[in-house]
Every structure is written in C-alpha cells, then in structure tokens.
Amino acid sequence: MSAPLLSVTGAVKRFGGVQALRGVDFDLRAGEIHALLGENGAGKSTLMNLLSGVYTPDEGTIQIDGRQVALNNPREAQAAGIATIFQELDLVPTLDVAANLFLGRELMRPGGFLDVPAMRSEARKRLEAIELAIDPARLVADLSIGQRQVVAIVKALSYASRVLIMDEPTAALTVAEVERLFDVMRKLAASGVGIVYISHRLEEVPRIAG
Ligand SMILES: Nc1ncnc2c1ncn2[C@@H]1O[C@H](COP(=O)(O)OP(=O)(O)OP(=O)(O)O)[C@@H](O)[C@H]1O
C-alpha cells in the first residue's frame, strides 16, 4: 500500500509544565475523513496548530507522502499541501466572493488592471465543482455562515492542497448547513483530498467520518 498522505508519529508538545500532546500518532489517507475527537483541553487545537505550522512539535515527526516535512510556519504548511480552516474564517467581508478567492493572487489584464470577469468566471467554476451555486459577485458579508465556510474551503484548496484540516466546522451552522457541509466534505474526499475533522460533537462522527 502507498504511504499515507499525512502521517504524525510520536508528536509531543509542552507548554511550560503542561504536556498538551503526549505521543500522538495518526495516519490520514487520501479520500479519508478522519475525526479528531476530544473534550475541551484534550489537545485538539495544539495538534491542529502543529499541522498548520503555528507551533512546532517538541518531539515527533510529520510526514507527507512518506517524506518528513518541517512545518516551521503557516507558509511552509501551505507549501506542503496542508490547508487549515480555522473557526475565524480568513475572508474579507467587504469584498466579493471572487475577490476573496483571488486575494493576493489577483488575475490581471495587460496594463495592470484587475481582470474581474476572468476571476469571477474562474470562481464560478471552482464553486460549481463542488456544486455550490454562489454568485461570485456577491459580497461575503451578504452570505450565510455556511456559505462563507465553503468559500473559505474553496480558497484554501486553491493552493493545491491535498490535506484539509477543519476546526469545529459545524459549531456555528444550522442543521441544514451541517448537511450541506458534510456533502461538500464527502465530495472533496471522493476527489482524493484527506480531511482531518476536529470536533467534540460525538454524535456527528458516524455521519461523516468512516
Ligand atoms: N499556548 C499555550 N500555552 C500554555 N498552555 C497551553 C497553550 N495552548 C494549549 N495549552 C494547554 O494545553 C492543553 C491542550 O489544549 P488545547 O487547546 O490543544 O485543547 P483542545 O482540545 O483544543 O481544547 P479546546 O476545545 O478547549 O480548544 C490544555 O491544558 C491547555 O491549557
């Protein structure tokens, strides 16, 4: 069998006298939705921060496709193909959906002008790829929380990421939005993305993590 997409081995993280992680091991395979469950204080955020390059482990290794990687900062995690959706979504509410998806990587026309039609058309394609009909010209401020979250996912995945880490993604969603999010997660997994789904809602796990 091929190496897991992501492999964490013996991860230890201490904060002064507090041992937040004591030897965490887990593998994530392509197409898998892996739930990380735990009570408040169990160490879920610490593990997520290790995988997103916010903290470095005191001990242990992280491998991508069987190769050890150092994730010294969020940029290195992104370069390694790990995208994280934090609870505070990384979107600018006063900009439209397309502008958010291309923030910092805008498509330009000759003469140094923004190519708004090209960005909107590409944004529409990416949203439709997960069967989400959101008008790319809408302001993020006018979207529901569930729609914003999907925009954040599409944005995160546009960096060629294959590992998606989601921190309590259902916390602020309605029941219908949770269903829609789970559909999106299943579609992404079917396309080969590996998802780490952090939650303390035990009842959700059998519905989404296999
Ligand atoms: N930056 C930090 N400095 C000191 N202690 C910390 C720090 N971050 C986490 N801890 C401690 O490490 C342990 C694990 O915390 P962590 O936030 O990872 O848990 P969690 O499972 O994510 O909980 P929650 O759902 O409440 O965020 C806790 O005892 C916490 O107090």
UniProtKB/TrEMBL annotation:
Where is the ABC transporter domain positioned along the sequence?
6-210
User: Which residues span the membrane?
Assistant: none
Pfam hit, one: ABC_tran
Q: Known CDD domains for this protein?
A: ABC_Carb_Monos_I (cd03216)
Record-linked PROSITE patterns: ABC_TRANSPORTER_2
* UniProt keyword terms in alphabetical order: ATP-binding, Nucleotide-binding, Repeat, Sugar transport, Transport
An example of a GO molecular function for this protein is: ATP binding
> InterPro entries annotated for this entry?
AAA+_ATPase, ABC_carbohydrate_import_ATPase, ABC_transporter-like_ATP-bd, P-loop_NTPase
Q: Which domain of life is it from?
A: Bacteria
Query: Which PANTHER family is this protein grouped with?
Result: CARBOHYDRATE TRANSPORT ATP-BINDING PROTEIN MG119-RELATED, GALACTOFURANOSE TRANSPORTER ATP-BINDING PROTEIN YTFR
Q: What is this protein called?
A: ATP-binding cassette domain-containing protein
Organism in which the protein naturally occurs: Mesorhizobium qingshengii
UniProt lineage: Bacteria, Pseudomonadati, Pseudomonadota, Alphaproteobacteria, Hyphomicrobiales
